[in-house]
Amino acid sequence: MAADERQIIPLLEYDASPQAFIEPVDVRQPVDVPRACVLSWFHDGIERLVGRLDGRQVVENRWEDGPHPLFEVDMEGRRVGLVPMPVSGAAAGSLVEELIALGCRSFAACGGAGSLRPDVTLGHLVVVTSALRDEGLSHHYLPPGRVVDADPAAVATLEATLTEHGVPYVAGRTWTTDAFFRETPAKIAARRDEDCVTVDMEAASIAAVARFRDVRLAQLLYGGDDLSGAAWDHRSWRTQHEVRDNMLALAMNAALRMEA
């Protein structure tokens, strides 16, 4: 890229070349793993689920920040993977790259998010239909743009799963940001005006990776802490173990249905 073609902001210097200097297959070789995989930030929930279903670890996957192993469990005679995810879009997106290189192809992600609307109460589920790209990683996978739309087929599968199980939810956009401590009142108001229902740190990033690699991915969030009022309300959102365990079961079902 010539100097006069460069953008003021480096993140906008998108390179559409499909080949990178280091490819995921340079660090991860395909192995016998489930094609359907659940990505979750509920590490304790994954531990409970693996123990309850007699799951096993199939890939160690140890990073500098600790282990992010790929577990396998049996759900009605079918294999499904479970991966405890790292926080932040850069880390999460890179781990998804490695999982794709290993052989996973259909992903259902579940995590918590800050609520930007008062009707998204504690534990209420949100199906991500698009993500506002206020983070870094997605801009290396897709041309510059304000939002990334979710995979409509994967979203439809996730919504069908929730409907069939009688689980209420809302569908909408999430605001993905790198800066947890820079969610200012002005930005919160602006994102709400752009129809953002929640705020999170990974959704846009992993959606961009999935689109770039042409794999299925849907995302399910639940209303955690509340940013919709005059003051922040933590709502003890990390203690919602039953919500998290139910979400993992629903995500497993959806991931397997994507592979049907």
Structural account:
- The protein is α/β, with parallel strands linked by helices and 260 residues long.
- It has a single domain, classed as Nucleoside phosphorylase domain (Rossmann fold, 3-Layer(aba) Sandwich), CATH 3.40.50.
- The protein is built from 6 helices and 12 strands.
- The strands form 2 sheets. It has a 5-stranded mixed barrel with strand order 7-11-10-8-12, surrounded by 4 helices.
- Helix 4 links the parallel strand 10 and strand 11.
- Helix 2 packs parallel to helix 5.
- The protein starts with 35 loop residues before the first strand and ends with a helix.
- Pfam families: PNP_UDP_1.
- Its EC number is 2.4.2.3.
- It catalyses: uridine + phosphate = alpha-D-ribose 1-phosphate + uracil.
- It is an enzyme of class 2 (transferase).
Category by helix and strand content? alpha/beta
CATH level-4 homologous superfamily: Nucleoside phosphorylase domain
Beta-strand share of residues: 25-35%
CATH topology: Rossmann fold
- What's the shape? globular
Termini gap? 43 Å
Specify the biggest β-sheet: 5 strands, mixed, barrel
Q: Which H/E pattern describes the elements? A: EHEEEEEHEEEHEHEHEH
Count of discrete alpha- or pi-helical segments spanning 4 or more residues: 6
The tally of domains stands at 1
- Calculate the mean pLDDT score and round it: 94
Using the coordinates above, name the CATH class. Answer: Alpha Beta
Rg, please?
18 Å
Number of strands: 12
* Major sheet: arrangement of strands: 7-11-10-8-12
Low-confidence stretches: none
CATH architecture: 3-Layer(aba) Sandwich
Helical coverage, percent range: 25-40%
Catalytic activity: uridine + phosphate = alpha-D-ribose 1-phosphate + uracil
Pfam families: PNP_UDP_1 (PF01048)
EC number: 2.4.2.3
Protein name: Uridine phosphorylase
